[in-house]
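The records we work with from here on pair a chain with its fold. Each token is a code from a learned vocabulary of local backbone shapes. A record is reproduced here so that you can trace the correspondence yourselves:

_____
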Amino acid sequence: METKDDYTQDGTVDFHGKPAVPSKTGKWKACAFLVGYEAFERMAFYGVASNLVNYLTTQLHEDTVSSVRNVNNWSGSVWITPILGAYIADSHLGRFWTFTLSSLIYVLGMTLLTIAVSLKSLKPTCTNGVCNKASTSQVAFFYTALYTMAIGAGGTKPNISTFGADQFDDFNPNEKELKASFFNWWMFTSFLGALIATLGLVYIQENLGWGLGYGIPTAGLLLSLVIFYIGTPIYRHKVRTTKSPARDIIRVLIAAFKNRKLQLPSNPSDLHEYEMEYNVGRGKRQVDHTPALRFLDKAAIKKDPTTGSSRVPMTVNQVEGAKLIFGMLLIWLVTLIPSTIWAQINTLFVKQGTTLERNLGPDFKIPAASLGSFVTLSMLLSVPMYDRLFVPFMRQRTGHPRGITLLQRLGIGFSIQIIAIAIAYAVEVRRIHVIKANHILGPKDIVPMSIFWLLPQYVLIGIADVFNAIGLLEFFYDQSPEDMQSLGTTFFTSGIGVGNFLNSFLVTMTDKITGRGYRKSWIADNLNDSHLDYYYGFLLIMSSLNLLVFLWVSSRYIYKKESTRVKEALSVQMEVNPTLDASLGLQV
């Protein structure tokens, strides 16, 4: 029989609701099953996303602006829906079951999408090289499949990575050290799936058929789910200690407003908070008080016994949770412009590449979307270098466990991204110069300039993502209130989603404003007779200004401070507590 020392100290349990045994559960042996799913899921997503703009223009015959807008709207939905999935996980079903149900919807969407691109009756017909536009029913079926996939992603994306992070015990020094590298290697496998998509699947779609190009990742996704469920006996599950953690944020705001005329105590220790032993006994970590957003502290002012009020004040823990969310919101706002830059990879960068010379020898033409593989390749090469070389090197000089702080990591990534968009601008200026020198006018005319001119911007965005994409995922997980880590992770996904919507809005408005009257639009159907360089210059200016705002916001950000004391009886208490049902993620 296991003693209390044989259980995890963070309160996690196994599938049956019993305290998790470290030697039998969690760590990388559990994550091995999870990363398999992540690789196949990313292969499926990027197999669709990286070449979707080409499918819409060549198969459904949409114009450039419409196709870019539709890709951005769909991508935005994929990254926005995790807000709902995270809320369901944190407040109702738990991460495991939310992921389970959502993954089935995801597979359904991929299956429908494969059918949509395979059956002739679901695609527009062509006669003597003249193609009809897609019918209403064909468009409806295709986009229904796409958005079914987006709904499924809403439940899988925020929960699979946080479920993976749950496999490491923060109170165990050895496991905490392993967790420090978790997000780096998690994203490494994600990049691996994306690489297979942008190199292999894109080529298959354009040369062997769209049905096969979508069918392969659909089959892979089904296989990955089988692998995921094989690992069920060794997964650790976090037990919810708050029925509706998101509701606490609203309650803090309401309580602070009601107490707005009350005087705050000079000593924060006079605010309402339970004893350390009480919080730890309930499996909750106690967050230390911070001086930020002092107005919210009024929600924790203890009631005056002379008033006879029955009002129960909020605790410091709950108030600090609200402060964390508002602090993260400010950081989130300054990630939207970088996400807009990232959105170019699957839209305008691809359309730009279709105008360039793509032949490698007489028989092979590089698919324009495959250049996105260099984003992934640069990520795959940079992640091990960052984790094994950069972090130890910086750790020796700064003494910081991560080498540099999370916000410093983001700042470096945003700076590299600005260099990337500056190069994209310069390359587009060069492309327009070549167009004028060779008197190229037709929309299908190929510019005598190698597609590899675009390579530096792809590579730099990949390197930037090692800093900002992984850094953002880790930042929002690390800084979220304990009971809201799935919801907190959606700050990362929703930032990408809003960035896609923002790019869709900017492209549409730029086209309407610059194309008024008889003027040429910056983003016309004929990219050989437009000014994409002006749009890239506009993004460059916005990115530079955004970096200045980020530096100002990050200089005022206060990191979460948790007390790591653990009540020794926690694991034993959980063992005898019959009210904890971790297999459902509920308290019954």
